[in-house]
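Thread amino acids onto this structure.
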């Protein structure tokens, strides 16, 4: 187990932040889990994973508006040859992702584009009981350059990809997905749920605004103007007052050994 830990944003400027400290502790825990399968992370791998967790926790701090957040997880190793499942959750309370992005100033390029997607989905009849404008904003939050700090009127930044990169990284570590063992990462915020399950990937795509950016639209055309797959982006019956990022991967010794044998 990686017992539930509480972090607080901005405690002491002179000391390592809770975000950096707990990200490092969790990567060390992950390395200990991997050692059960006779592999370990090299220094570069530890640094990259620590950056992913730091960014994910930073996103939680930015969106929630509260100082406190929590992280916890565990590795479960069933008897026999079944792969172990590694489970991780980061959560906080406060504003939802949709509420945070709706605070973007009027006239900002990012707000205009997200509002345009909402109007397009409303116009083509996409909205109903299981899909609403809130999910469109949530879908937008999964894209590169989508963050509440990207409030310029003439350009988008390059923040907002940490959640996706975490999903991709852990799907690589996980044994190849099949019907029994499917790695998954889920983001829940308010009533909106986004599921990363490997069916859809982030691909460099023409956005239609004279630029090419990494996009994950969760549909076969990888087009944000079209409704996402209902299995991957949908509305929940109940509300969570904040944001949860929850991830499960399956660790298999043979698969990890094959990754370790690949030369960079």
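Threaded sequence (264 positions):
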């Amino acid at each position: 187990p990686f017992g539930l830990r509480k972090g607080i944003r901005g405690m002491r400027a002179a000391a390592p932040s809770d975000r950096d400290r707990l990200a490092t502790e969790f990567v060390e825990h992950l390395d200990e889990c991997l050692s059960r399968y006779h592999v370990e992370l090299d220094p570069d791998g530890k640094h990259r994973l620590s950056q992913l967790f730091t960014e994910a926790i930073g996103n939680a701090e930015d969106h929630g508006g509260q100082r406190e957040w929590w992280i916890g997880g565990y590795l479960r190793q069933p008897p026999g040859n079944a792969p172990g499942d590694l489970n991780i959750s980061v959560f906080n309370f406060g504003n939802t992702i949709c509420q945070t992005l709706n605070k973007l100033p009027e006239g900002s390029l990012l707000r205009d584009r997200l509002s345009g997607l909402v109007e397009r989905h409303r116009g083509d009849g996409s909205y109903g009981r299981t899909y609403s404008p809130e999910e469109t904003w949530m879908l937008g939050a999964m894209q590169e350059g989508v963050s509440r700090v990207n409030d310029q009127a003439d350009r988008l930044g390059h923040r907002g990809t940490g959640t996706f990169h975490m999903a991709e990284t852990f799907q690589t570590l996980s044994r190849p997905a099949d019907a029994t063992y499917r790695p998954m990462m889920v983001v829940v915020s308010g009533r909106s749920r986004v599921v990363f399950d490997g069916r859809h990937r982030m691909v460099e795509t023409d956005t239609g605004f004279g630029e090419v950016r990494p996009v994950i639209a969760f549909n076969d055309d990888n087009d944000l103007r079209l409704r996402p797959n209902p299995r991957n982006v949908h509305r929940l019956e109940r509300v969570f007052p904040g944001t949860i990022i929850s991830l499960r991967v399956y660790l298999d010794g043979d698969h990890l050994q094959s990754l370790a044998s690949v030369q960079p």
